Structures are given as C-alpha cells and as structure tokens.
Amino acid sequence: MQVKFLISALILGVLSPVVLCQEPGENGQKGRNFVVLKPGDAIAERVRKAANVAPSTRQLKWQEREFIAFTHFGMDTFTDREWGEGTESVSLFNPAAFNAGQWVKVLKAAGMKMLIITAKHHDGFCLWPSKYTEHSVKNSPWRQGKGDVVREVADACREYGLKFGIYLSPWDRHEPTYGNSPLYNEHFKNQLRELLTTYGQVSEVWFDGACGEGPNGKKQVYDWQSYYALARELQPEAVIAVMGPDVRWVGTESGYGRETEWSVVPDVLQNLDSIAYGSQQHPVEGAFVPGDLTGEDLGSRERIKSALTLLWYPSEVDVSIRPGWFYHESEDSRVKSPEKLVDIYYSSVGRNSVLLLNVPPDKSGQIHESDVKSLTGMRKILDQTFRKNLAQGSKVSVSSESERHQGSYILDDDPGTYWSTDEGVDSGRIVVEFPRQETFDRLMLQEYIGIGQRIENFSAEAWEGGKWVEFCGGTTVGYKRLLRFPVITTGKLRLIISRSRQSPTLSSLGVFKAPPEVLIEPEGGAFVDSMKVSLSSDSKNALIRYTLDTIPPGEKAQLYSGPVTIKKSSLLAAVCFAPDGVESLVKSAEFTKALKGIRLRTPFSSNYSGGGMLALVDGIHGSRDFRDGHWQGYERDDLDAIIDLGGQADIKHISANFFQDVTSWIFLPRWVEYAVSADGDKFEVISLLKNEIPDEQTGAVIKSFDAAFEKIKARFIRVRAKNIGACPPWHQGAGGKAWLFADEITVE
Questions:
Q1: Which DSSP category does 351 fall into?
Q2: Of 65, 327, 336, 589, which is most buried by a Cβ count within 10 Å?
Q3: What DSSP designation does 693 have?
Q4: Cα distance between residue 237 and residue 261, in whole Å
Q5: How many of the other CB atoms lie within 10 Å of CB of 383?
Q6: 242: domain range?
Q7: In Å, what is the CA distance from 38 to each residue of 15, 62, 114, 299?
Q8: Measured between alpha carbons, how far is 645 from 678 in angstroms, rounded to an integer?
Q9: Which DSSP string do the residues of 571-589 spell out, in sequence order?
C-alpha cells in the first residue's frame, strides 16, 4: 500500500501537468487519457475504466496521420557512418544539390502526412545555426555558412501541406558539458527552445533514450520532466515521442507491430527508464530489452488486473527504408522493395499503430532514385488496393444498436459517426449484404477511438454453400485493423465481435481487392552448379512472364510454364497479368553462382546464418545493418573456414569482411589468419592480420582484412578469425558471450 500510494502521488503530483489531459466527452462527460486505479477495484471495474480511457486531442490527430516520415541526414551522411564520434570536421557537410522541396514532394506522393527531421544526431552536429554550439551548419561550406536545413525543410512542409516534426538527440558526443548533468540539461533545453520557437508549428517532438558514453565515464542523467514541460509550453499541440508521455516506441525497429496492440497501457510511468535503456541499445538476441516493451501482451485484462494506472499510450513503429538509418551508397541496391514496404504498412498501420518510415537523403541532399522507385511502387499497390470499398451500397443489419449509433454508420464515410451496441451489451454481430457477388482479399475495420479502445476479439465469415465460413479474425482493432486472406467471392459477410470492453464501436468497415502479385521461390540466393526457381501468383489463372536479364518483363517476355533452371549468375524479373488485365509490379530476385566451395569447421548461429553454407562466398556483401540477412554470426566461437577453389590456381590477394557494433555485443576479431594448401590437409600460414580498431569504438563498423602477396599456387584457402570471446569489463554486457560477424571472403 505504501509503495502504491507513493507511485500514485508521484504520477499525480509531478507528471500531471505533462501527462494528464481532460477534455469534454460525449453527453457532457469528461473524457481523459489517464486514470488512477484503486487497489480494491474488481476486474470488472478495471475493465470498465480501461474502456473509457481515450486519446487526447493531440494524440487523436497524430493517430489519424497513420503514415509519417523520418529523415536521418547530417554528418553521418558524409562520413558513411551510423553513429558519429562528434569530432568530425564541419567542412565535410556540403550537400551541393540540397532540395528540401524534393524531399517533401517525394514523401507526400508516397502518402506520408508528416516529416520528422533529425535536427541533431548523436554526433552533436546541428542542422540549424544554433547559438549554443560551433558544431553546426553555420561553420560548414554549405551555403557559405548561411544555410539552415531545418528552416528549408519546415518551409517546404508548409508549402506542400505536410506536418513538421523534429528529432533532437539527447546524447551529444561533441558537447563538452555532456556528463555534467545540470549544465548539459540546460544546454539541451536551450537548443530545444531554439527549434520550438523558430520554425513555426511543430507537430511531433521525438526523443530517444540513447546514452552510450559508458566507457569514457560520461554518465549523463537526462531531465526528462523539464524537457517535456518546455515542449508543452512552446508547442502545446505537439505529441512527445517516443521517450515521452504521448507516444511509445513499439519496441523494435523492424517495422512490425503486434497482432494484439492495445493503446491503453498499464503502469507506463514506472518503465520510462527501461524505455530509455532499450532505445537503440540492444544485443543481437534482444535478451535484455524489457519485456514490457517487446512482449506480445501489453494491455490485456491479465495485465491490468493489478495495475496502478492506465494511460492512453499508442504505438509508433519506426523502420528505415534501407538497412541503415543514414544514407550509404553501398546500400543503393538494398532499399526495401515496394512489396516489403506494403507488408510493413499492413503490419503497422494495419495493427493500430502509426508507421514512421525513415527515408535518408543522399550526399547531394536529395532522396535517391532507388528510394523514390520503391516508394512509388508501394503507393501504386496501396492506391490500387484501397481505391474502392466494395462494401459501399450494401445493406447492413446488426444484432444490437444504440439509438444514436446505428449499424449503417459503418459505411457512411464519416469518421465522426459510428455503430455501437445498446448499453450493457459487450458483443455484437454485423451482416453486410452486397448488391452483387464481390471478390476481395482485404478487410478493414476501425473503432471509434474517440471514446476508447474496446474490441478484444472478432472474426469475419463469408456466406458459402448455404453456411457461414470463417475466413479471418483477430483480437484488437483500435484505430485501424487491416487483414489479408486468400481471395473470397461471396454475397454476404458477417463480422462477429465476441468480446469487448463495454459496448463495442465501429466507425468503418471496408472490403477491398489487392492487385495481383508475382511470387519467386526462392527469393534469390547462391548456388554451386544450378538452381531451379518457381514462379507463381496470388491471383488465380494469372499469366506470368519473366526475363533473365535486366530488361523489365512485359507482354512479350518469356511465358512461364514451369520451374526455371538457372546455371549462371542472373537477375530474374517477373510480372503477372490477372484475368481482368490488372498488371502486377515487377518482382525481381538475384541469383549468384558461387565459384568456390566452402567447408565450415565451426558452426554459425542459426539466428544469423547469412543465408546458409555459401553465405561467405556468395558475392553478396553485408550492410551496416547486421540484421540484413547477409552477415554470418558466431556466438563466442571463432570462424574457421576452408575454401575449395576446385583446382590449383595462382592467388595474390585474400580478403574477408567483419562487422562491429559493440552496443549489440558484436566485436571485430582479435586477428585474422590466412593459410593455403594443395591437398586440404596440410596448410601453410601466409598472413596474420591483427585488428587495430578499438573495441570501444561505437557505431556500425565494417572492416576488410586484406592480404596481398606474390602469386602463390594453391587449391585450398583456410580463413581463421579469433572471436574476442567475452564482452570486456567496461561493456554493459561484461562477461557475456561476444559475437563475431563475418561476411564475404574474396580470393583473387
């Protein structure tokens, strides 16, 4: 009791000016986004209170944006890094063709409603002429030191109709006062004040909790409450995310939200430190990232039955269109495909979250054509899918409806109207009778979250052969739920809401048909002699055409009739045509013939296989994102590989790539050894290369261990790399198993 009282007092006394929000609700009642629970509340009373926690005005406007943009741009763009040291010369920043209007037009065309710019990243370089540091654009050669990236982006957003947000990194590796908590907190607030008073309306203030200065002793304590208070004072309509009281981080940077996503979350305020600790800092297994952030269940009845508080705290899903967050030329071919972006959209926006997609401009200061191409393709698929709600004009009948909230409102295109059951009825059925038989494969549901999130379980059925047949279902709905399923043709649909917190609501229901998609199996990879590739489509009776070169396939390309045998490195491109003539986007996959055989004497991790046994010799290089599927990981083990060239050959150069990201427990090898053999049994060491990059160096590091020598005849090459073994004493995971990540081995 004493602990519970203390926490409640802390919340009400300290955070109420920042967190609490009371606004007029329906029938003159007060709606609020926060509630304190009584220790003696029964579960039924707790559920009732949870059902009536609703978003603040700023949170609701934020949710309605659905899809927003991040732009990581700054010193790291020019140093080809992810986390700068803060010692970089300002002379490096010079985007010769900088064009904020191009950014905004590209992002708006993709359907995004807001742009959040990285005004300052961890290296401390400011994209505006801050009065509080010399490490900014004002001392760069760009625009002769008279430029202001933040100004031009904010102006472009206003010109083209996008909302504007800022990300100001609390971690600053350049600022001398960092680590002197009182002084640095004032410095940070001074910079925050500049951004929130100089550039017009700001709709989102984005903080993370990154604080990676442990090894050098700079233990900065962030004064979050003063940051929040300043943001509320200067930009009262802005949401504060994701280390903030309005919007939470979903818990991963994959782009995928939970199947069950509650916006009403218990006891958030006890976990702010955990959120800060988890942000941008996690080992490869994610083992110590708090379960409260990454667990599948954040807000169920089980979670609220012993809660002290409930807060409307919705999910924002962040992900980059590229493997890295900043632009790297080496990743131009690794931009997420339109289909991948669409899958992310369904798994974020379609799971009661807002999607924050990072699109990093290149060194010229513009969004690269590869990114534009993927965004354009994604938008085409979404527009083709959602251009027409096939349920429009249908007859709606319901099992129960309140006098003011009739069933027909789910099809009236007015987000302010909604269906609800009679008071006290916490389940319901809706039958939609189409004017004619309709064919569809997508279902959209939207609750009226203005009064809370309530639906806990639902299913959808189609009338087939004189009976109802279930074709999809789920748990939470929230602001928007999008479901995908095999194509259905029916004249009637039934939605069953089997469980809800109080009377369920539904403001919108839609059924849609997605354009056809061609599928390639496998989706690329390496092979030794040959590989068979199968093509298919999710559209029945579709025609598939393909090519094995770089020419986009069309109506005159090869007609697919069976598996394609590939015997040389090829780029397979395919397209399908549905019976109604609708054409899919072009899908492509790269297949690489590995010229060498390889035998691994130590096993790689099944979680980080890099693509399998041929990963180290498949010709595909890993990026600065160790999760990209091309790095092969060894937990505590050394790498020991033998490559068979297939016969005696003259060799003069050997190299192997390794990766380091110490915040993810990945370290470069202590040394790399190359040896040669004629018979694969007796090896002669020809090179031993020691690592000279410090373990403490943060950020993503890719190092190639190169050995050049006079021509040597050999058939077998042995590559050994020494794992550091255990994380060093200074590391947050001291004593834990260290990872060795390897990729392409090249022999010339």
A1: B
A2: 327
A3: S
A4: 25
A5: 11
A6: 59-257+272-290+314-384
A7: 19, 30, 39, 17
A8: 10
A9: EEEEEEE-TTSPBPPPEEE
| Of 512, 540, 562, the domain-final residue | 512
The residues with which 564 forms a beta bridge, in sequence order, are: 533
Q: Do residues 126 and 245 share a domain?
A: yes
User: Is 328 found in the same domain as 208?
Assistant: yes
192 plus 119 within the same structural domain? yes
Total number of residues shown for the chain: 748
| Burial degree of 344 (CB within 10 A; 0-12, 13-18, 19+) | buried
Instruction: Read off the pLDDT band of 297 (50, 70, 90).
Output: confident
Are 562 and 666 in the same domain?
Answer: no
Q: Residue 418 corresponds to which tokens in the numbers above?
A: 């909604």
- Of 360, 383, 384, 382, the C-alpha closest to 371 is 360
* Burial classification of residue 346, based on how many CB atoms lie within 10 Å of its CB (0-12 exposed, 13-18 middle, 19 or more buried): buried
Please check whether residue 101 lies inside any domain of the structure: yes
Q: What distance in Å separates the CA atoms of residue 84 and residue 587, rounded to the nearest whole number?
A: 36
Strand partners, 204: 165, 239
Q: What is the pLDDT of residue 65?
A: 98
The percent of the chain in helix, strand and coil, each rounded to the nearest 5, is 25, 35, 45
Q: How far is CA 576 from the centre of its chain?
A: 29
Would you call 288 exposed, middle or buried from its count of C-beta atoms within 10 A (0-12, 13-18, 19+)? middle
Contact assessment for residue 702 and residue 647, using Cβ atoms and an 8 Å cutoff: no
Residue 109 in any domain: the answer is: yes
- Contact of 718 with 677, CB cutoff 8 Å: yes
Amino acid present at 469: V
Pick the closest to residue 408 from 416, 396, 417 (CA basis): 396
Assign 703 to helix, strand or coil: strand
Each residue's pLDDT tens digit, 337-392:
999 999 999 999 999 999 999 999 999 999 999 999 999 999 999 999 999 999 99
When pLDDT is averaged across residues 683-695 and rounded to a whole number, the result is 92
Residues 508 and 527 in one domain: no
Task: Tell me how far apart the alpha carbons of residues 432 and 463 are, in angstroms, rounded to a whole number.
Answer: 10
488 touches 462 (CB < 8 A): yes
Among the listed residues 45, 36, 1, 40, the one whose alpha carbon sits nearest the alpha carbon of residue 15: 36
**CA-to-CA dists, residue 226 to 7, 279, 319, 704, angstroms:** 19, 20, 28, 45
The chain-wide mean pLDDT, for the chain, equals: 88
The C-alpha R_g of the chain, in whole angstroms, comes to 28
- Take residue 714 and report the two structure tokens written for it: 């050999």
- What one-character DSSP code corresponds to residue 603? P
Higher pLDDT, 451 or 539: 451
Q: Are 55 and 265 in contact (CB under 8 A)?
A: no
User: How far apart, in whole angstroms, are the C-alpha atoms of residue 736 and residue 729?
Assistant: 10
For residues 17 and 31, give the distance between their C-alpha atoms in angstroms, rounded to a whole number.
16
In a domain, 24, yes or no: no
Comparing CA positions, the residue from 616, 415, 375, 650 lying closest to residue 510 is 415
Residue 96: how many other CB atoms lie within 10 Å: 10
The tokens for 334 are 């690794």
Rounded (10°) angle between helices 369-386 and 100-109: 30
> Which one of 491, 512, 533 terminates a domain?
512
Per cent of the chain over pLDDT 90 is: 67
Q: If you ran DSSP here, which 8-state letter would residue 427 be given? A: -
For residue 85, being part of any structural domain is answered with yes
Q: Which of 321, 231, 313 is nearest to 275 (CA)?
A: 313
Number of H helices, E strands in the chain: 14, 36
Residues 558 and 570 reside in one and the same domain: yes
Contacts of residues 177-180 at CB distance under 8 Å and 24 or more positions apart, as own/partner, are 178/213, 178/218, 178/220, 179/213, 179/217, 179/218, 179/219, 179/220
Q: DSSP per residue over 497-509, as a string?
A: EEEESSS-EESEE
Could you tell me how far CA 19 lies from the centroid of its own chain?
Answer: 26
Q: How many domains does the chain have?
A: 4
**Segments of 10-102 assigned E as strands:** 22-24, 30-32, 34-36, 67-71
Strands 163-168 and 419-420: unpaired
